[in-house]
Amino acid sequence: MYVQLLANTLVGTALYFTVAASFYLVFTSTKSFYLTHAAVISVGAYFTFLLTERLNLSLQLSVPLAILAALLLALFFELFIYRRMRAKKVLPLTYLLASLGLYIIVVNCISLYFGDDGKILKSGPVLVANKILGAYLTTVQIIMILTAVIVFVGLHILIHHTPFGTLIRAVSTNPTLCDIYGISSDRVISWCLIIGSALGAIGGILYGLNTNFIPRSGFDLLLYGIVAMIIGGVGGYRGLVFGSLLLSGAQQLTTFFIDKMWMDAVVYLILIVFLVWRPRGFSGLQLRKVEI
Amino acid sequence: LSYILHILILICLYTILAQSLNLSSGLTGMVSLTHAGFYGIGAYTTAILSQQLHWPFWINLPIAMLICLALSWLISLISVRTIDEYFMICTVGVQAIIFAVMNNWMKLTKGPLGISDIPSISFFGVNTGNRLAFLILSMTFMLFVWWVLQNLFDSAFGKTLRAINEDEIYARSIGKNIYRSKFNAFTISAVIAAIPGALYAHYVSFIDPTSFTVEESIFVLSIVILGGMGNLMGSFLAAAFMVLLPEILRFIGMPSSVAANVRQIVYGLFIVLITMTGKNGLGDLIKIVDSDSVRFSSRR
């Protein structure tokens, strides 16, 4: 029983880590909460659903297409909305409000077309349970864990061992100085959005393969990702692992010892505790309006 | 006629909600998504008290407001320490917790089944069960709240809040207690949100948690954005517009299942347009209001 609990925690950690990492890439370059990321996650899942169920394409073909659709959507928002706002130098909070508006539009378009009822991605032979060390894991869940490992390693290589990683770190530290040095911060942000959205779409698709989803699932998933990011400390991607682990562990323990329905309450309680006493999560830094 | 009265009552309730949120989110710039939670607490408190203890509305309302006060006091202790986006995520969390309590505490709130048969308000022997009397009641509340908030907005306290919104560091440097001002703005706004909640519960006589979700919070927030941050008249007009919008959509022959989504798409579009152009509300966007300051643009 406890082995199963551990396995479930691991699966949850993997999923939240993938989503948190995708959002982290967006957040670290732009320094604002783009809630359109939730729409990107939903679009990833729904596009796969559209291609496999309605157009009868194979899963192997529809997943890359869905990822492409999701990142095109993110790129569209970036080029036509966020970039113009950035040129106007609007207040940070405005991005949040604008992205909230965009999210509402996209999600309602999805719900207009697909309806509000729960959808599930039929993955065929992938949903067979495998017994590993006494715990039952479906193949999708194993793929989830593998994906998370790949994302972690990939993120490490991307940020620390490629020239582009240096650019990301430069832009996240000081975008204005980057522009002065001739590094186009807009271009770096666009690339971060592309990679982040692709990861987000992958997270959405994996979620859709594992459980059924509704148009709002993207938002819930993104919130979990954000919570994991905040708990883990906004400072770095390594904290995301701890954040996701704590989040997923708390969820599984709540489900096991109390009741599944209090899961969300516990998650947000943890978030609030962290926001008050450790706003920068495990990294221990303090949050200030202006850092001098 | 009864239908028109229903619409007018809804406009009154949403005006109170939006105007109270305007104090904390619009004027002070603390974008909060807990408002539907406070609205729901108002509704649930009065529903439970009037149904199980048969207490009259005039006792329930202050109790509901007190509970909101206590809770918002706790939340602002937490929330005021964080800024901008973190504050908003924090309020989403609080909203989710309040919703979880409403949805899961079966003994007290009956969970997803909701509470039915909430008696209508009667005072001095006058029963406000009919819609005209209820409209007068809610309109009285709306005008009273409007008057109180207008005075608050124009007072020194309101000016401090405006200063905090525009430049927090500067406001602090001239000796304003930012912490306490934010704290007061948030609690006042929460306490006022209990009023429409209590009214709503007695009006529809059936409440369930789905009326008080985070979507509802986003809806109220979008009214504030549409009407203009820190603009009470704007909140009233935007509330009227938002309540009338689904009716207009239905009038042009759209099925109600589609209309719900289209309405959200419409206000999503408005939010994007307003924030993208850096304008303050719909009035500013289409140049009805000549706003002296463009709120969203950076000052430095």
Descriptive notes:
The complex is a heterodimer of chains A (292) and B (300). With 292 residues, chain A is an all-alpha fold. Chain A has eleven helices and two strands, in the order ααααββααααααα. Chain A is 75% helix and 3% strand. A two-stranded antiparallel ribbon of chain A has the order 1-2. In chain A, α1 packs antiparallel against α10 and α5 crosses α6 (163-173). Mean pLDDT of chain A is 82; it is low at 284-292. With 300 residues, chain B is an all-alpha fold. Chain B is built from 13 helices and two strands; from the N terminus they run αααααββαααααααα. Chain B has a two-stranded antiparallel sheet with strand order 1-2. In chain B, β1 (122-123) and β2 form a beta hairpin. In chain B, α1 crosses α10 (214-227). Chain B is globular. The N and C termini of chain B lie far apart (53 Å). Chains A and B meet through α3, α4, α9 and α11 of A and α4, α10 and α12 of B.
Spell out the key features of this protein:
A: 3% strand; disordered C terminus; B: 300 residues; mainly alpha; two-stranded antiparallel ribbon; 13 helices; 74% helix; globular
